[in-house]
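Before relying on records like the one below, remember that each one covers exactly one chain. Contacts with other chains, cofactors or solvent are not represented anywhere in the record.
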Amino acid sequence: MILIRNKLNFKHTNRKGRRGSHTFRDLSPGALYRLDIVPEDGERQVIKFNTKPIPVPKVSTSKFYRQAPDSESTQVFGAVLYWTPPAGALDGYAVSVQPNHGEIKAPVYQKNGESRTDNTQPRRVVTGLEPGLEYNFTIESTAGNEKSAPTIFNTRIPPETPGPIEVKSVDSRSAVLDWQREHRGFLDGFYLETVPPEGEMIRPKRNTDKQREVAGLKPGKKYTVKVHSTAYGLLSFRPSERSIITLPEAPLGDLVVISRDPVNVTLSWTPPDGEAQMYQILYYPTDSDARKLKELSINSTITLTNLDPGTEYNFEIETISNGLHSDSKSFDPIATPPLGIEDLTVIDKDFTSVSIGWNHPKPDNVKYVVDYSPNSRNSWPVGPFITTDTLAAVDGLEPGRTYVFNVYAVANNVESEPKKIKVTLPVPDKPSKVEISEVADTSFEITWESPYADATFTVDVLSVAGGHVDGFPISTSEKGYSVEGLDQGEVYKVTVSTVLDGFTTDKSAMQVETFKNSEDTILFSSNSDVEMEVIDATMNQFASYILNAIDDESISLGINVSPEPHFINNDKFAVLSVSIHAKPSVLSPEMLNQLFKDWNDDQSEDSKYFSDVIDTNLNECKMRNACSANSKCVDKEILYTCQCNEGYLDQTDEVVNSDKIYTLEGQVCLADLEDNCVNTDWKFQRQGYVVVRRNMPELAEFSMCFKMTLNSPKLQGTIVSYRHEGSKLLMYQQKNRLFVNVNGNEMYELASYFQEDVVYSICLAANDDLIKLIVNGETMQSLKPENSVKLLGGGKVQISHDSECNRKCERIRGDLDARIEDFTIWSEAKSTEELKNFAAGECLTNGIMTLEKEATSLLGPMPDRPKQESVDDLFHNFVIATISPSGSPGFADLATRRWTTPASPYPTPANDPTNNRFIIETVAPPVYRADGGEDHEEIARPTYAPLPDQEVSINNLFNTNVNEIIGKPEVIDSIKTHCNPDNMTIVAEKAMIDDYEKKYGPLALSDPSCGRRTQGKNYVWEISPDLLGCGSTLELTDTHVTFVNSLSTASSAEETITAKGGIIFGNQLSARQTTKVSMEVSCQFPLDYTVTAEYPFLPQISMNIIKFNVTDYGEFSALMQLFDTDAFERPFEGSPEIEEGELLNVGVSLLDVTDPNVRVTLQECWATPESSPAHELRHDLIADACGVPGVLDNTLDIVSNGDSRMAKWHGSVFKFVGYENVWLHCNIKVCFADKAKGSKMNRNEIDSSYWD
């Protein structure tokens, strides 16, 4: 029987046999067991044993060092080992170390006053290890005589701390350090650091070298340097430390004088790199270093006081930091200003020179600078100049001018404060006692007095109009001058001025009127029974009366009476030849009537005895434009007459009795309405398109002709379009074909047929039977229409534009680059032969867009017609229809009416009882042409109501030769228009405007109340802040807006003439009245823009301003911004962080626009991951001015669009996958509110077209 047991349990078993063995399982590790063996036939035996303990599972260590108590330089290194006790029973641990260094100690406890070692504790302290070495620690659990398997733990002891650090050298930016003590154990290098962490450690030849250089330090700064030993990446337990201070550096650059006066100076210098706690300033006069002064400053500026005036000082500055001084830096000397001058006075002055003087308190080593203004090349010496005296004189100045003299002292090249004095020079007196004598027809004498013997005199003679007489002004040294070569009977202004020392005095002026010798033919009214001899005697007595009344022997008057009288409408006239030698203001033919009334004591106001002077010279007739525009002057015995031009009918006989020799035939010349060629000359050459702004009449059939000249090698674009209520007339190029479309009936011709710089006559004739296209008289295409060609009236004809052609369509068609002339539409389909003749230059009449009679009735009066560059005779063929016969309304049926001619200047009511007044009554012609056109002898004449005289403005006359002056090169070159969003500025050369105004009258903008200002050699008109101010008109197309105004002559009171009975005659009009000057000015702006805001709003947002160049006319500026809130009040100025879930608040606004009628409309907006708006990856946000449905998770909201100068929208932040940035782009259109309708937009002028 075998019994095994320990303190916890026991087991019992039986085993028979002579020999026996047994295996025990599930015993406790490290436990002590007792084995009892009882043989059947023997004595009990007892055996004791321990099971093997379990190994230590994990070991940790904590290393340490301490200073040896017997030495400050010796360090003791060790380690503390600790581990987790294993399971089972044990009675201790066996610990060993390799290499076999040091001493291993177990924990000690006190028992009964004795210290005992406790080997069962799971920790040990090992001391006496070598620094930097690697150790293997072996730990075994023990139970009785049994040991567990060993657990080996490996670790390295940190190296020994380096020895004390010595500073071998230090300068302003580096230091060399050394530590030479021998080290125990092992190390492989050293690790250095500075506090603060600046500088760079220079790598040594060997890592174990005990010296290092630290570079890159800052001057004047204190550093702590720490040095660790290293061993396989381990640092020593603590570093060796040393503080160092780098040397400060001297200040940089030059000394700068901030301010100075004679005894104080404020200086500034550039601080050096690194730290500078204060500066030491050493200064002393350059001529004596024995008196050195020191000052300290904590800043890089200092103010030094109590210096000597006008003294030069040396300066040396040192930087002080952490108690160390830098090297001293010497600067260029700086001087204090000298004291200023005193007692500056004017000693003497005359017309051209000034002498001045002054004093100085310390004149030694001081110079003086004298300057004066204004300077000139003629004055001497030229300022500024230097002198050592306290006196100065300047000559060559201008009399009467005010000069300012500045004088200041200079010492060591430093100026004192200046003293100034103002001097006004006297001026010579102008000539006195000016007298005019010996006045003749073409000359006079002028004399004067002057006290200056060395002066010259300028004599000038000017006409009343302000121009200089040829040869004047002249210069003379005499005190008198004989003026010759003048015109007779003219008033002149004569001036004389003194010129002395280059100065011209004010002018003495007088007015002179020369004598005139005149011989004029004048009619004198006479009773039928008075003989010419009686009138001759009367005229002699009348002449004697005048000469006696004037009492001037230089005046002569002769009145000769022709022996034969002359008659006008059976009224008798005496023909007088009047010779006068006198000044016109004293005696002239125009005064004879009043003088005759005085002689006869006639108190009536409207008595008229003498006619106006009769023009008998044919050149006078032509010069004075006596005849109408459609007739020419023809010479006659006494008077001239007029003869109608070819193609015009003389209607004078219809209203004037033609058997009188003084009747002016040809004064009423009208175009033959049945056989007259009148064509427009519209030239469409500028950018944009032209709208014939009058309604087209309804046309059941029509013909359309025009001339076209291409300005580029290829025909493209829209030529003409008409669209109205379903009616359609189109002619355009597409895909190299010229398409013609009339109400859906379409045909085409190859566009390549048309060549550059070739004139083509193009006609289109259409009725419901046939449509034909004729080019240069040749039928190119014809078509049997399926749809009616009838065009409904009321629409507008447009040249080079189609209102329903959108942006894509325009890109396909292109832009028309051609000249369109003689555009004409007829209300019938002309035959092929007629159109061939038209192409060959023959006339076709009755064009609804050309002949004025039909054009007036259908399209309105001339002022409302489309502007034409060449009027030709278009508007000269129509007399104002102010009366109409009650029996016949036809325009050709002109008949009897009352009117006056230059030959009969006395319109008097028919019931005037006096016999010496004249009435011109028209007599009905014996033949009256009725509507049928045949002559009838006994047809009853229609009756007429006489019309009162009425005032008619020149601008409304259709039968006046109005020559519009437009586009002359010299005018175009002399006028410049500057266009901005809030103003239009017109700058014109003053000389050119003055010349035109002298000839044709004042020029003004459409609203004359907008005046002009003179700016140098130019006149300047400014239309602001509203471009529609000053009478400007606005023309809107789908792509551009044009503001149009003009500088033109306007009707004034003196340019208004009287239409007598509705008829105006050519000789009533002056050159100003028959010439209309119009200089059109305009500013054009495109309406479509693309605005891009570059903002990679993940992680930041920025903004971008885009400027748009608009053709060569003007520009708008647009800005896209991001705002911090949806109130759109504060745009971001920096780079904000916008996180997911926040809203983008985007505003697009126009800059530099103050006109409240301007609006901005977002047409479309989109986003791209790169800056190009045309990037293939895009995210549409707004289209057709509306948000894209569902975009940005339905968060996009358009806050404002098209109702102010800023459009606004917001929506959630987004990004493109795989991209960092997002760019926003918007196409915008600039719109203009209709003022007549408040803020309502002209939407009919806007479509979806845009520019990229």
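Residues 428 and 1114 are 53 Å apart (CA to CA).
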